[in-house]
Amino acid sequence: MLFQYTKIDGLWIVDPERFHDARGSFGRTFCSEEFGALGLSTHFVQHSLSVSLLRHTLRGLHFQVPPHQEAKLVSCVRGVIWDVAVDLRPGSPTYLEWVGTTLSADNGRQFYIPEGFAHGFQSLVDDVAVSYVISAPYVPNSSSGIRYDDAAIGIDWPARPSVMSDKDMAWPAWRGLVDLAVEEAEV
Ligand SMILES: Cc1cn([C@H]2C[C@H](O)[C@@H](COP(=O)(O)OP(=O)(O)O[C@H]3O[C@@H](C)C(=O)[C@@H](O)[C@H]3O)O2)c(=O)[nH]c1=O
Fold first, then answer.
1. DSSP states of 166-181 as a string?
2. Among 84, 95, 78, 77, which Cα is nearest to 59's?
3. Which of 8, 132, 169, 187 is the most buried (most CB within 10 A)?
4. How far is Cα of residue 160 from the mean position of the Cα atoms in its chain?
5. Which domains occur in the chain, in start order?
6. Catalytic residues per the record (predicted)?
């Protein structure tokens, strides 16, 4: 497996090392020794698959609040997506910066997104399947999100979204969420 740093500490692009022969190819998608050696999570408790039917469908930006934060290892097993992670770690030198990368069934690339990040993606073709391996259980009350087009983050999405969930359309901007948390703490 080929691990590439991104400009954000803790966020990794993981490319496969594929061995080809007459039958096709073989390559690892996870290796606890290699992940552990880099300080990445090796304990995953959920594996999920999402299918998006139409090109330019957008999902995100999602995260779970403490103590239910999760690391995610994301790959696209059918089609192509533009996958994005946003650094929401207070005090991080790259706070609110984002990284996007193209994941496809062909390139076999995975995005390792640690705790403290929001995640989202946009399908670039019809009928994509996205696989997630996640380090923490799904806790609906701890699931949160921010607007995909939050100006303070400024993600350069490939296209206007064609389909989004009502929930994703209704997320506030990040600043709004932080302000709300402070107000709640003061009550
Ligand atoms: C995420 C999730 C959803 N669900 C249920 C809740 C709901 O009824 C249905 C669809 O959920 P959502 O609308 O939240 O699905 P979706 O918008 O695809 O959510 C996903 O988006 C991407 C960007 C991520 O990063 C993922 O971790 C996850 O948050 O599936 C689970 O049972 N377990 C889960 O882990």
1. HHHHHPPPHHHHHHHH
2. 84
3. 8
4. 19
5. 2-186 (2.60.120.10)
6. 62 (proton acceptor), 132 (proton donor)
Ligand 1 mean position, distance from CA 138 (Å):
8
29 close to ligand 1 (CB < 6 Angstrom): no
Give the strand pairing for 128-134 and 98-104: unpaired
**Which ligand 1 atom sits closest to the C-alpha of 60?**
23
Residues labelled catalytic: 62, 132
What was the ipTM of the complex prediction?
A: 0.97
Over residues 172-187, mean pLDDT: 70
Q: How far is the CA of 151 from the centre of ligand 1 (A)?
A: 24
Confidence of residue 30 (pLDDT cuts 50, 70, 90): very high
pTM attached to this predicted model: 0.94
Among 51, 62, 163, residue to substitute to test ligand 1 (most atoms within 8 Å of Cβ): 62
pLDDT digits (tens, 9 = 90+) for 116-151: 999 999 999 999 999 999 999 999 999 999 999 999
